[in-house]
Specification:
With 361 residues, the chain is an all-alpha fold. The protein is built from 16 helices and no strands.
């Protein structure tokens, strides 16, 4: 969509803009899918310059009526599709998103409000206010089961990161929502017991290590041994945060160093580092696996869209509606992967229709 960067905002123009951004999308989609499709549409139909002009027009209208749900929703969709728009106009994404969710819920659009908050939570994961609002909406819309699952996932993630008490906190939230979850209450007791045992073991280990090191310090040969181990420790590959291969190499080196040397002065540091590295590697592997699953799902969805557009294009061609068929074939090629099994056939159809159109002029 081409918009002048200096366009003067006016109500008809803004109304068309709002309809474009918040209007219905193709297919029978739920609220979350509809929101994602609207964002994709905003990203594809508006370049950066047009997005800035559109945002200015929406802001001018909202300055007159800040509670206009559709205009605020259009602005948020545009901002999510073009983040620099919000940054340039100093619009706080979290604040405006929460305000929109409140307005949507008041307008009996609880599912839409929940989707807005879930999207914000994914983009700003550490915002407790967003998390609180989302939990409230889920309770009021009868999504208690989904909220319970959300808390359980957080508890599991915290436990995997070694944050036992954080996991207990999330599990306690589950019990507050559903006091019949005896399994969760049992998990809380088990985690507390494990934390207590871990502290006892750590205390014992540190006492043993300290004692052994004191005795070993009396023997001159231990000094040479310590020097060699520390040299090996210092020579381990550097683990770069976020670089899975380097982190694995560092972890493998630590594992070998710890297995090969029963006790040494810096063993406690190595044990702590190994524990942190294990957690970080597992978390990064989990994130990479999740990203891969998301990519696979997106590719699958794009393939389904491409196939749907191709089939509709074939139907239009059979009906003699070649302009519509050409549009759908081109859209199918845009959505499909390069190795799509129907790509060659669809490209041939596009070429044939374009040639026919030129010949018929």
């Amino acid at each position: 969509m081409n918009l002048s960067a200096t366009a003067t905002p006016n109500t008809p123009f803004v109304e068309d803009l709002v309809n474009t951004l918040t209007g219905p999308v193709q297919g029978e989609l739920n609220a979350a899918e509809t929101l994602r499709e609207q964002m994709k549409r905003a990203a594809s139909e508006f370049d950066e310059r047009a997005a800035q002009a559109a945002a200015r027009a929406l802001l001018d209208e909202l300055s007159q009526d800040s509670s206009d749900v559709r205009r605020l929703e259009a602005l948020l969709i545009m901002g999510l599709a073009h983040p620099t728009v919000l940054e340039k106009h100093r619009i706080p994404l979290a604040q405006e998103g929460r305000r929109l969710a409140q307005l949507l819920e008041r307008a009996s659009q609880g599912d839409r409000a929940r989707c807005i908050l879930e999207l914000l939570a994914s983009k700003i994961p550490n915002d407790s206010a967003i998390d609180h609002d989302l939990a409230g909406v889920m309770r009021r819309t009868g999504s208690t089961d989904a909220l319970v699952e959300r808390y359980l996932r957080r508890a599991d993630d915290a436990a995997q990161r070694g944050k036992t008490m954080e996991a207990v906190t999330w599990l306690q939230e589950v019990v507050l929502l559903d006091r019949n979850r005896r399994d969760v209450a049992r998990m809380i007791r088990d985690l507390r017991y494990q934390e207590k045992e871990r502290r006892v073991r750590t205390s014992r280990q540190l006492k043993v290590i300290t004692f052994v090191l004191v005795i070993a310090g009396l023997v001159g040969v231990v000094v040479m041994r310590e020097s060699g181990i520390h040299a090996d420790y210092a020579g381990l590959p550097t683990g770069v945060a976020g670089d899975l291969n380097s982190m694995r190499q560092r972890l493998d080196g630590l594992e070998e160093l710890i297995d090969k040397n029963i006790v040494w002065a810096g063993m406690s540091s190595a044990l702590i580092e190994r524990g942190h590295l294990r957690t970080d590697v597992e978390k990064l592997e989990s994130e990479l696996a999740q990203k891969q699953r998301v990519l696979e799902q997106e590719r699958k969805q794009q393939l389904e869209v491409a196939e749907s557009m191709r089939m509709r294009g074939v139907q239009y061609a059979q009906q003699g509606k070649f302009d519509l068929a050409l549009s759908d074939f081109r859209s199918a090629l845009e959505f499909a992967a390069p190795n799509w099994e129907h790509r060659q056939r669809v490209e041939a159809d596009v070429t044939a229709i374009e040639a026919w159109q030129k010949g018929s002029k």
